[in-house]
Amino acid sequence: MANTDERLDVFLHGERVGALWKTRESLVFAYEPTYLARPDATALSARLPLKAGPSAWREAGKWFEGLLPEGEQRERIARQAPAASMSTYSMLRAIGAECAGAVEVRVPGEPRRAGKEPASTEEIEHYIRRMDRFPLRSGERRLTLSLAGAQAKFALVKEKEGWSWPIGGYVSSHIVKPEQQGFPGLVANEHTCMEIARRAGLRAAKTSIERFGACSALVIERFDRSEDGSRIHQEDFAQALGTRGKYQKDGGPSLEDCFTRTGVGGWELWDHVMFAWQELLDPIPAGRRAASHRLRCRIAPLRTRRSWIEGWQ
Predict the structure, then answer these.
(1) At what angle do helices 88-95 and 71-80 cross, to 10 degrees?
(2) Is the model's pLDDT at 46 over the cut of 50?
């Protein structure tokens, strides 16, 4: 195995389960032998079954790539983060301490400094206005979290007395998606669609519209967090199927793939699809958007959705 300068430790539910390291050609992942020996060991993914020996890029690299932001958001983070490049390894080294589900990717030997820091309304507004330049916050107490997708977003911790910043991989409770330039009404649109989904009887992540000073944002209760705040492991269909891309147009899974190649979902997945068509929402939950399933074969609640008529006044 590579030395610790080229290796990242991978944790699941706070326990080290294996290591990810880079070779000259790609990334390789291997489970820790002591973890494999446990009777209650859980696989990271349907594409990364519990087995001894390394899993090469075809399985491991694509799966870990699915944890990272995309497009302009990734470029912005790379400019601010202490990452040598936009490569999967460099990005995970910089921001992998808090990922989707129950996964953490950390530098070996680096002390855990997870904690939270009170965030006032004024501080959050200031951050939103500057997040195109400083997506990880400025100063020493930067955010070290990875939120997949192309939209600009960040995470907070909801408490009785208000909001807090999750620092050093602290478990966040909510995702915040500010109004985006060029997409007027996006926040209201997504919240309305999610409310319709709930009223239609579908399991959907709880959303609300919050104002941080003059900035409007969609606040989403994380579906990959339990009531006690602990992490719930999950992966999206692109990760589970190991496709070339996350979206169908880029080689990602089709709707047919989600039904026929995973063996999960059944009627609940069908209900989600029918809702998407009938309510004029995006009809390709695993194409243009990325649907998710939980590893123990349960469809995760709808995350955020928006209609095709977004932007209409």
Answers:
(1) 60
(2) yes
